Amino acid sequence: MSSPRFDLLGVGSPIMDLLAPVPLEFLQHVPGEKGGMVLVDHDQMEAILAHLAQAPAHATGGSAANATFNATRLGLRTSFLGKLGNDELARIYRERFTAVGVDASRFKEGQQANARSLILVTPDADRTMRTHLGAAMTLSPDEISPADFAGVRHAHIEGYLVFNQALADAVLASARTAGCTVSLDLSSFEVVGASRAWLFSQFHKGIDVVFANEDEIRALFEDQTSPYENLTRRLADYGVLAAVKLGKDGAWIAREKEIHRIEPVRVNDVVDTNGAGDAWAAGFLAGYLRDWSLPRCGALASVMGAETVRHMGPLIPDVAWPDVTARLQKI
Predict the structure, then answer these.
(1) How far is Cα 271 from Cα 58, in angstroms, rounded to an integer?
(2) How far are the Cα atoms of 87, 94, 294 from residue 104, in angstroms, in the given order?
(3) Is the pTM of this model over 0.85?
(4) Any idea where the domains of the chain sit in the sequence?
(5) Tens digit of pLDDT for each residue in 251-281?
(6) Core vs surface per residue 109-127: b (16+ CB within 10 A) or e
(7) What is the domain class of 6-328 according to CATH?
(8) Do residues 268 and 307 touch, judged by C-beta distance below 8 A?
(9) CA 95 to CA 131: how far, in whole Å?
């Protein structure tokens, strides 16, 4: 067999992030709870945007897309599977991914405006996301086949895809048929709450790596009191490599009977937590796909997550990468 052409294929929605710092009281204009991600329609999005004091900044986003972008900068050969729109935002999105080295041949093209997510960042550095999926929402199971995963070693899938379980089923079935290993980021406690039974059924079918944060792992097991170490072990008992991200408190990683506490990289100048979990996953996968030890994978992941929260937006800016690269070389 020939070696894979790509180390990593990200699968999810190519969303253009609209970044807006807001005071806490602004959230009175936003449907749903503070934090997390809620889908909104076009009119709801426009109503929220109308209350902003100034126009938001733009950045390429989407959970799996952020992870893919970061993994590319960490030296992995990557591609991305998702549906772009037919507008200027879609053109800019494709150009930015191509510029950093992501293969763009597996993007699909829709007939609607590109997906966009309004990221409302409050002074506590928390982010409240309201997303209109646009063209990304029109990606159908019939458009997915094992050919999309040909030449790929590992597929990284965002949990938001699970809002359309038929689509998620097609993605996982095609990836498995193509012989890819698979990781799934649970992405949001709302995703978990809407799909717990489906998630457990997929763990039984076989998923190699599962990423969760504090809210997601508690929602998965409907357990608000157990230590995260115990919850990580419970997830690993389903035969997956469990990576539970705890933000400023580090992480737990477990595989079979092996478990590791990953110490955090301390940050005193937090600006925005948007994208930190995706960067953490990218760092972990960059080590995992190089067959590094789990503690070393976790150390790389922690540096990536910590650097991301020091900047507005989901991606580490170009100017910060020389310092990040120097730190990563010491791991």
Answers:
(1) 16
(2) 17, 7, 30
(3) yes
(4) 6-328
(5) 999 999 999 999 999 999 998 888 999 999 9
(6) ebebbbbbbbbbbbeebbb
(7) alpha beta
(8) no
(9) 22
